[in-house]
Specification:
Strand content: 25-35%
CATH topology of the largest domain: Rossmann fold
CATH superfamily of the largest domain: P-loop containing nucleotide triphosphate hydrolases
Radius of gyration: 38 Å
Number of domains: 5
Mean pLDDT: 85
CATH architecture of the largest domain: 3-Layer(aba) Sandwich
CATH class of the largest domain: Alpha Beta
Helix content: 25-40%
Structural class: alpha+beta
Number of strands: 31
Length: 621
């Protein structure tokens, strides 16, 4: 993990090929014959003669490209490990012993590979030196028959011996002709971690096969999801762990970056081994949002399909294998081809990801599928069924269904950019045009409703209008929508808030008569007419209206008419024509006020420039 060097074509044009097949069918021996590397290094593997952990070895082809070979265990109890290795494959070598022929794990591995989206490979009949030509021919026919109707139908077939070298050169030539699996190079970087370990002098190292994007030495990366002790409170909602990449190897070669399809080892600084276990993902920061409810396209294997036939309502407990992760879940069928996964732990998945589902006990593979919607699934069957039409359109490639499924929640601009969506922006979120229009209509309708609810209010408080369907908008987006309505002239602003353009308070005849009579009769000593307001009139709202219109002014905790206050100021100025100072007692006698109301009025006279305070008295200003 020292200083990087410029990548060779083998780094850029990487190909990842895995073994698959029944236990003791010569997979590890085959890898050793191809590469010279013995991948059974664990003491238990050596003692029992079986593969337990994933093995990795580079194979340099004659054209200079490097094939990353992944050797997976064949034991039925190690399917999780097999899936962890097979999830990142470009192609597979399906191995069948010429001695035993096709066995149960041969078929299960083949099923799993199809569910994981592997598209190409080689049929390899191993141990060819242990049988006569007639039995070898029968073994070749059997493996070819067993793959009919699968992605390996018509694949090249080669008989080999890992001990004598028979067929090994021909197999190398076939591998050289295999095309790399198409992987998105422009998306976020995603690497499912299949191993993590501490390397002396470097720290924590993780390995895996990059699924998409690229990551350069020195970049920051994110670990998702955080679980258990790393997750803090609320698994799946914890802040993601961050790390800096300080050294990259691709197929054992130092490289400045890791790209989609490359078998990669990375030194991640700032994290302990326990924080990056197998099952976690190393990603571009912010690219993946772990979820515990996922809507998926489902494909049952033949046996499970018979059990599920006609039953699209019964939940069942399953284990979901995705990338290198294993998560318990409930699967809720929605129809024959779609289901919802309700996961016990967060899953860091994206649309299009493949997964496998297994029955936990007795353990067997049931099927698998692809992730359709990890963003807007709802964990209520009724609502999930309501969203099924849009989910089907999503499965058919209709990108607009994303906005439809997001509904009034909308999609933030970062995710909308990743999904390459077009819609209507409100604030920093994107909405389906119909939803955006419903928001725009709701703004106008809400302001109109508030005018009817509060007919004496000169305007509507902005926060009060944030209600109903508009509550789906965060404050920033809601205010942006208000500003848009103001910009189009539908609404207008006032000191009290917003209102419909041209809207004004209209007093009813009985209200107007009361206002005129009460204002005319008001004095400094008496303003208690609010108790006698006309029926069905909001006294407080009427008071605020008169204040906003300028008929009343609030001084302290009381209201006075402007005419009364003007008369008071005139009386005070007249007082000073005969007196140099005025103390509170003199003011109370002049105005007829109590001490409680006199002090605020004296302060009002100071503020309006009629008087000036000097100690405990006032003088004319």
């Amino acid at each position: 993990m020292a200083a990087p060097v410029e990548p060779s074509p083998s780094v850029v044009d990487a190909l990842v090929v895995g073994t698959a097949g029944h236990i003791d069918h010569g997979k590890t021996t085959l890898v050793r014959a191809l590469t010279g590397i013995n991948l059974d290094t664990l003491p238990e593997e050596k003692e029992r003669g079986i593969t337990i952990a994933l093995g990795f070895a580079p194979l340099v082809l004659p054209d200079g490209r490097t094939v990353g070979l992944i050797d997976v265990p064949g034991h039925e109890r190690l399917i999780r490990t097999m899936v962890a290795g097979a999830s990142g494959l470009d192609a597979v070598m399906l191995c069948v012993s010429a001695v035993d022929g096709v066995m149960p794990q041969t078929r299960e591995h083949l099923d799993i590979l199809g569910l994981l989206g592997v598209k190409s490979g080689v049929l390899v009949v191993t141990m060819a030196d242990l049988v006569d030509p007639e039995l070898l021919e029968l073994a070749i026919e059997e493996i070819q028959d067993s793959v009919r109707g699968t992605f390996l139908q018509g694949a090249p077939t080669v008989a080999v011996s890992g001990l004598t070298g028979q067929g090994i050169d021909r197999l190398r030539g076939i591998l050289a002709a295999l095309p790399p699996r198409s992987r998105p190079q422009d998306g976020p970087f995603r690497l499912p971690i299949d191993r993590s370990f501490a390397r002396r002098g470097f720290g924590t190292v993780v390995t895996g096969t990059a699924w998409s994007g690229s990551l350069r030495d020195g970049d920051e990366a994110e670990v998702q999801p955080t679980r258990g002790a790393n997750a803090g409170s609320g698994a799946g909602n914890a802040k993601a762990l961050r790390a800096r990449i300080r050294g990259i190897q691709v197929h054992g070669t130092k490289a400045p970056e890791a790209r989609a399809g490359s078998r990669t080892a990375m030194n991640v600084t700032g994290l302990d081994v326990e924080q990056v276990p197998r099952g976690a993902w190393l990603t571009t920061p912010g690219a993946v949002r772990p979820t515990q409810v996922v809507d998926v396209a489902i494909r049952w294997l033949a046996d499970a399909q018979e059990e599920e036939a006609g039953d699209h309502t019964t939940e069942r407990s399953v284990v979901v294998l995705h990338g290198t992760a294993e998560v318990e879940a409930k699967i809720v069928p929605l129809d024959a081809n779609h289901a919802q996964l309700r996961l016990a732990e967060p899953l860091a998945c994206l649309p299009g990801d493949h997964f496998v589902i297994r029955q936990p006990s007795p353990s067997r593979t049931l099927g698998g599928g692809t992730v359709l919607d990890p963003y807007f699934s709802v964990a209520k069957r009724g609502r999930a069924l309501d969203g099924l039409p849009a989910l089907r359109r999503l499965a058919a490639g209709a990108a607009g269904a994303w906005l439809e499924r997001s509904g009034t929640a909308g999609i933030d601009t970062v995710l909308a950019t990743q999904l390459k969506l077009q819609g209507t922006h409100i604030g920093d979120r994107l909405y389906a045009p119909g939803v955006a229009q419903s928001f725009a209509d709701a703004v106008v309708a809400t302001v109109a409703d508030l005018h009817r609810e509060h007919p004496l209010a000169p305007a509507v408080n902005r926060k009060e209008a944030h209600r109903g369907i508009l509550r789906a908008l965060d404050e920033r987006s809601f205010l942006a929508l208000l500003d848009a309505a103001i910009g189009t002239g539908t609404l207008e602003t006032s000191p009290a808030g917003v209102r419909l353009r041209g809207w004004q308070v209209q007093l009813a005849p009985d209200q107007q008569g009361w206002v005129s009579a009460t204002l005319a009769a008001a004095t400094m000593a008496r303003w208690d007419g609010l108790a006698e307001v006309p029926e069905h009139t909001d006294a407080a709202a009427l008071l605020h209206l008169l204040r906003d219109r300028g008929d009343l002014e609030r001084v302290g905790d009381r209201y006075y008419t402007r005419a009364c206050l003007a008369d008071l100021a005139t009386a005070v100025r007249a007082y000073f024509s005969a007196h140099e100072t005025m103390d509170p007692a003199a003011f109370k006698e002049l105005s007829g006020q109590s001490r409680r109301t006199a002090i605020p009025l004296l302060e009002w006279l100071d503020q309006t420039g009629t008087t000036q305070r000097r100690g405990d008295v006032r003088v004319a200003k």
